[in-house]
Amino acid sequence: MHRKTYLITGGAGFIGSSLTEKLLNEGHNVINVDNFNDFYSPAIKENNISSFITNSRYTLHRIDIRDREALQPVFESAQIDVVIHLAAMAGVRPSIEDPVLYEEVNMKGTINILECMKSCNLRKLVFASSSSVYGNSKQIPFREDDNSRTISPYAATKKAGEEMCHLYHHLYGINSVMLRFFTVYGPKQRPDLAIHKFTRMILNEQPIPFYGDGSTMRDYAYIDDIIAGIQGSITYLTENEKVCEIFNLSGNHSISLKEMVDIIAVNTGKQPIINVLPMQPGDVTCTNADISRAQKLLGYNPDTSFEEGINKFVSWYKSSFCAQSAR
After folding, report:
1. Which of 1, 15, 27, 157 could be cross-linked to 106 through a Cys-Cys bond (beta carbons 3.0 to 4.6 Å apart)?
2. Rounded distance, CA 43 to CA 61, Å?
3. Over pLDDT 90: what percentage of the chain?
4. CB count, 10 Å around CB of 103?
5. Does position 327 have pLDDT exceeding 50, yes or no?
6. Closest alpha carbon to 93 in 193, 210, 207, 212
7. pLDDT category of residue 326 using cuts at 50, 70 and 90
8. DSSP 192-209
């Protein structure tokens, strides 16, 4: 095996740390960039990387991607094969409250990454986009050539990030694979996301916020399948030239809010307490991906059913949190 060096922004987060662990286990070098902000407890990110922080093939830089001056030496510090840009301010609803912050991190930060790549003559980038760019598209399932409009600042910044990747490909030959992640879940998922939050609340017998009538649907993707999709993207970048492609990555099956809560309840063995609330601004009614392009070009084949994924997540949650509280 030829050992490669990967730079991952947002490397201490849910997806970033899962990808880092996978690449390290395969014998590669990994450079993480993360600012450990307080969007959720930084201690969670510290725990995410605790198992490989002393690995000789692992390097961590605590840097904000808005700081170009601090970023530049990181890109110059090693011969980097592929950059995986996952760092971003996340969340639809928080972006409505503070759109300027989202613009600064997600747009300026992405331009900084691209500028650093340009200056160091790096030509392979995987960019984390989002299913939110589809807004309330009338085209079901969502296809990558859909021209629907975004309905939140977060989504708009992700769409702008895709455009910047295309621009830097056109002007400077930076090859990019842009991945529109649909709702990703699994061990280490962020605590603010629904599956993590609902599991915690059901186990603690707290009322769960239930927006709308339960009919809204999401195309959930298990973390192992997403990591496989990212690795497929890396292979695609390595084996092809003049690449500037967008791919949907999802679990290939939409689940309603009501179904999701019911499946979590079965796995926790507790009855959920439902607090029905109005739909929230910026929320979409349904996400459903056409993954045929990713299947054809990336070899992407999600094989974790939602029921299996929830079972794994609840088991992880109980071992990580319930065991701690019982001590």
Report:
1. 157
2. 16
3. 87
4. 17
5. no
6. 193
7. very low
8. TSHHHHHHHHHHTT-EEE
Q: In terms of pLDDT, which residue wins out, 195 or 279? A: 195
Q: Which of 179, 180, 293, 177 lies closest to 234 in space, CA to CA?
A: 177
308: which 2 tokens?
């299996």
Both tokens of residue 137? 């598209």
- pLDDT of 258 higher than 90: yes
Which pLDDT tens digit goes with each residue over 118-133? Answer: 999 999 999 999 999 9
* CB 95 within 8 Å of CB 157: yes
Residue recorded with tokens 């070899």:
299
Q: Is residue 115 helix, strand or coil?
A: helix
Concatenated DSSP letters of 279-307: PPTT--SB--B--HHHHHHH-------HH
| Structure-token match 């349904």, residue found | 286
Catalytic residue numbers read: 154
The torsion angle over the Cα atoms of residues 169, 299, 287 and 176, rounded to 10 degrees, is -10
Strand ranges (DSSP E) for 81-188? 82-85, 124-130, 175-181, 184-185
Nearest to 45 by CA among 54, 33, 28, 57: 33
pLDDT at 321: 79
Mean pLDDT of 70-93: 96
For residue 225, the number of C-alpha atoms closer than 13 Å in the C-beta half-sphere is 27
Q: Exposed (0-12), middle (13-18) or buried (19+): which is 200, by Cβ within 10 Å?
A: middle
Which positions ≥6 away from 54 have C-beta within 8 Å?
A: none
Helix/strand/coil for 88: coil
Q: Is the predicted pLDDT of residue 211 greater than 90, yes or no? A: no
Q: Which residue is associated with the tokens 């649909």?
A: 182
> What's at 305, amino acid-wise?
S
- Cα 126-127-131 angle, rounded to 5 deg: 130
